[in-house]
Amino acid sequence: MRLFLLAILFILLNSCHSGTTLLHLQSSGSISQENALKILEKQDGRGDLLPFCEELRYLKERKSFACKRNGRWGLLSARGYLLIKPECQNIAYYKTAKKSALQSLYLCEFTDKTTLYNSSGNSLRTANNSEYLYGRGFKKELILIKEGQLLGLMDKDGQQLLEPIYEEIDCTYFYTGRYSRDERACLLRKNGKVGIIRHTGQLVFDAICDEAMVGKMISNWSYKCIKGDKAFYYNRKLELVRVAPKDDDIAGNYKRRRMP
Q1: What is the pLDDT of residue 193?
Q2: The dihedral sign for the CA sequence 242, 244, 250, 254
Q3: 173 pLDDT exceeds 80?
Q4: CA 64 to each of CA 50, 59, 96, 100: distance values in angstroms, whole numbers, following the listed order
Q5: CB 164 within 8 A of CB 198
Q6: Cα angle value 22/23/25 (rounded, 5°)
Q7: How many helices and strands in the chain, by DSSP H and E?
Q8: Among positive and negative, which fits the CA dihedral 31, 33, 38, 43?
Q9: Helices (H), the chain
Q10: CA distances (Å), 70 to each of 52, 85, 107, 115, in order?
Q11: Nearest to 209 by CA among 259, 141, 151
């Protein structure tokens, strides 16, 4: 019985860590124009552009259609409108266990570049050999971008919030959902220094600290940055409220999370 329970726990833990998958067209089978038209009719769509496509693949998770013409792939919306012109060598999209900004994004892939599109067919970003990643713990509107080995951050509309110059951007240090009023913030690491960015995308301080902490909202400070032998305390409005020796602990009633 004990072994059985351990096996079930192992399965559950593994399922929790498989929340985001990048799917390519190869994961979807081809469908006929007749079947595509039936699907569009159920989705209150139109089939005017179906004859334009030499091959169709139904992306069930998105209720959209990949359309191939002259050896290149494009995308039709759930209602049959053209979102991406057929110029991609491949189209990829994310399947996520939870709602996130990734659910509205498509990747138009080429040999030497990737272009990111939203569900309205707007081009958000093009980069050479760039990967688009989901930032665990980020609010659903935020997306990690990776160029080479460096990370940056953008919002779901393609607006760059942080240039890809960081060695690490991770929310596992500070993200706490136990209390609705807890701060949700993320780690920035660069050149041996750390910083903090809120889950909303607002930069608290850049990677300039030797150590960084986040306090509870009910405490008299929200953020702490240690530089050298000094500790700098900031309130939620990012106003400096105290400078003290590094080892001075004004903890009070808060739940701190330390960035090593």
Answers
A1: 95
A2: positive
A3: no
A4: 12, 5, 16, 18
A5: no
A6: 150
A7: 2, 23
A8: positive
A9: 2-16, 33-42
A10: 10, 12, 19, 20
A11: 259
- The full 3-state SS of 140-169, as one line of letters, equals CCEEEEEECCEEEEEECCCCEEEEEEECEE
Q: What is the pLDDT of residues 118-142, one digit of tens each?
A: 888 888 877 765 555 544 434 455 6
Name residue, tokens 């593994």.
14
CA-atom Rg of the chain in angstroms: 23
Contact yes or no for 65/75 (Cβ under 8 A): yes
Residue indicated by tokens 């240690």: 226
Residue 17 amino acid letter: H
Return the number of other C-beta atoms located less than 10 Å from residue 19's C-beta. 13
User: Hey, what amino acid is at 222?
Assistant: S
pTM above 0.70, yes or no: no
Residue with tokens 């990677």: 207
Backbone region of residue 157 per phi and psi (left: phi > 0; alpha: psi in -120 to 50; beta: other values):
alpha
pLDDT exceeding 70 applies to what percent of the chain?
Answer: 70
Q: Which residues contact 198 (CB under 8 A, 6 or more apart)?
A: 183, 184, 185, 186, 204
**CA-angle at 42, arms to 61 and 78, nearest 5°:** 45
- 195 beta partners: 188
- The total number of residues shown for the chain amounts to 260
Contact status, residue 241 vs residue 228, Cβ threshold 8 Å: no
Instruction: Characterize the bridge pairing of strands 185-190 and 223-227.
Output: unpaired
